[in-house]
Amino acid sequence: MENLKRLFDNNRALVEQITRDDPDFFSRRASKQEPHFLFIGCADSRVPIETLTGVAPGEMFVHRNIANQVLPSDLNLLSVLQYAVEVLDVKHVIVCGHHQCGGVRAAMGEANHGLVDFWLAGIRDSIQRHKEEIDAYATDQAKFDRLVELNVLRQVFNLARTPIVQNAWKRGRRPLLHGIVYDLKDGLLRELVLAVDGPDKVRALLEANRRSVGD
Ligand code: CO
User: Fold this and answer.
1) pLDDT confidence bin for 213, thresholds 50/70/90
2) What is the mean pLDDT of residues 112-121?
3) d(Cα 172, Cα 134) in Å, to the nearest integer?
4) What's the pTM value of the predicted model, to 2 decimals?
5) Please, which pLDDT band fits residue 215 given cuts at 50, 70 and 90?
6) 25 CA to middle of ligand 1, Å?
7) 96 among known catalytic residues
8) CA–CA separation, 44 vs 57, rounded Å?
């Protein structure tokens, strides 16, 4: 219970600190949210994106799952995406992977992990598509790091293919899609692909990463 108490104590201290400078901070946000970003990231506890990027409450709409997957059958993700794009009108959708991702590592191994193996099937597919490239890396760590990146690129492509994003682009080229990776070792976010804003950029993404995104 001591750990749980810490959460409430920290929360009270944070609210006091914020409202000391800005007494209406929370009441202003209670009536509406106008986030510019939808973040799709891994559920890993070491990737607290709001803390890492310094955004304030109300700035970022967030969806997290194991290994930052964008699966066309995931009603949860699609609902979040539709609300973010069609109602909140976010400018940016960011897919963020991270090095040392346990989900990606699980997909690389032979062991049986139960239900989560179904979830990770897309990553296993990426491993097959990229087998030649991945096998060429000298160390297991290098293979692992590259697969984390390929997984992000694959999910950006999946995002671009959803009817939600396709329809939004037909209406006016929002949102921009971005793929980034978080490096746990130095705490920095790194760009993989930025500002995918329509079919042309998707084609370029496809060309640059043909084996990862398939067709
Ligand atoms: Co992860």
Assistant:
1) very low
2) 88
3) 38
4) 0.91
5) very low
6) 32
7) no
8) 20
In this structure, CATH architecture of domain 33-213: 3-Layer(aba) Sandwich (3.40)
Q: Which of 63, 101, 129, 130 is catalytic?
A: 101
* Cβ-contact 72, 158 below 8 angstroms: yes
Is residue 44 annotated as a catalytic residue, yes or no? yes
Buried b vs exposed e over 148-174: b needs ≥16 C-beta within 10 Å? bbbbbbbbbbbbbebebbeebbeeeee
CA 47 to ligand 1 center in whole angstroms: 8
Task: Tell me, in angstroms, the distance from the centre of ligand 1 to residue 21's CA.
Answer: 36
173 is catalytic: no
The two three-digit tokens of residue 6, written as one number? 């810490």
Strands in the chain per DSSP E: 37-42, 60-65, 92-98, 176-183, 188-196
Annotated catalytic residue: which of 63, 92, 96, 98? 98
- Which residues in the chain are classed under CATH 3.40.1050.10? 33-213
Clarify whether 36 is annotated catalytic.
no
Is-catalytic flag, 46?
A: yes
| Averaged pLDDT of the chain | 91
Query: What's the angle, vertex CA 53, arms to CA 159 and CA 101, rounded to 5?
Result: 60
Q: What is the largest CA-CA distance in the chain?
A: 58
6, 12, 28, 46: the catalytic one is 46
